[in-house]
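User: Structure please.
Assistant: Input sequence and predicted structure:
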Amino acid sequence: MSDAPEFLVEIEAWTGFGVETLYVATCDYVTSPADTPANRHYLGVVSDPGSFRRELFGGNLTMGASSASFGIIELASVDGALDAWLDYGFDGRPLTVKRLASRDAPYSSAVTVLRASVERLEGDNAWSTFRLRLYDRLRDLDVPLQGNLYVGTTLSGGPTANGTEDQKDAPKPLAFGRDLNVLAVEANPFDHIYQVNDGPVAAIAVFDGGVALTLADVPNYATLLALQSAPTSAVRPGKYATCLALGLFRLGGKPEYSVTANVTEGATVAERYAGAVATRILAKMGIAGPGNINAATFAALDAAAPYEVGTYIVAETTALAAISEVLASVGAALNQSPTGLLEVHRFTGTGVSVAILEEADFVGDAVNLISNPDSKGGLPAWRIVLGYARCWQVQEDNDLAYAVPSERRGFLGKFMRETKAESAAVKVKHLLAPEQRIDTLLVNEADAATEAARRLPLYSVRRDVLSFDVEDIYADALQPGVTVTMKLPRFGYGAGRDMVIIAREEKLRDGRVALTVWG
């Protein structure tokens, strides 16, 4: 009986007869009659079960955007046994890798080590080897968020808001959370009907050249037809009425300046927290429910960071970019769990350690000490400058009516407000300590100040980034986001230093896992 682990790979593919599951492995393997599936033969053609890297943020960072992970699996096809696969449809379909302790181990003992999707089947040396190129579910989100475009058929007045010919193929606006001073899209200039969201909103406050307009006596209409056909006596100049169900409003007359609006999407404050907003963006992409997301992680994020955010999207933007910017505002990122669920992780530094790692636990001699990439030069930051309360449409003085007061002019003339958290003591030790700027989608000053204060101790002291390999059979619990204690005779780690795993790379053929830790 061999002690070497074996790997089973289960791949969905369109074969010409429908979608089937293909079963291959690093050795010929047959499940027992009592297993599910029973008496299943795995063809032993996997020459390399692959490598696959998962990171909290990407680039060894502990903040910023989420990034998709990629990997490969190699298949031996010397005798042409897999040539028929070239006609199969693998792209976008799921793949699962399971580890057995040995080829004699029962199927019930198999541990799932990877769930991913197949990008394509390729053959750099097709006479002997095929490759399955893999990606995680974040790749599915790296596509345009808004698929609804203006068709440009609003050529005269009437119950239509499809945009003019000049607007044809422009994406309809999307508002999530609470957005300040967005530029409204004039979807029907003949009836002065504007759009601020391709969907329902909770409230719209409208401005003409920075001057607040007032709601009509009948403030809201249920349909576009009702909004458009409301008599002018009901929607007079200087007033506006809404169709909140469609993210629309109508002015009572031709505006003097640019028309902007404060938009509230999400009926309650809690619906405007980062986790809730990210969940709605995922739902717009058709990703929802317990089989797709780990809802508990989104709820935990909002409990820990109950801060309003807002994002307004009028240009082509990917869903992944939009979600990343929302989550990064509270120091979080979107990731895929080992079981394939989308979840969020907020970086808070070290937590309760789950393991002690010593020099004897390393495989190989290489232990890399990497300069911390979070701050300039890897130096501790003495000040965190955090931007908040984004003004989505900046307006200069000549864009504003004379009646706009100076305080509001100041707000409208600046893209973002700032709050700071600092420690002058850091500059005593580090003369070149940088100031670190972080722009966010946070709306409220108090929330931004709290977030800046939270981040200062994370980045104002020495932080190391280490990378090393360990044996995979001992590393199942060592996932990104978990804290471990590094106890080493070097680097001042003799008493143990708690560090967070920020990246994990499976090296299945070598029986290794490469870990990157921060702390």
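The longest strand covers residues 111-125.
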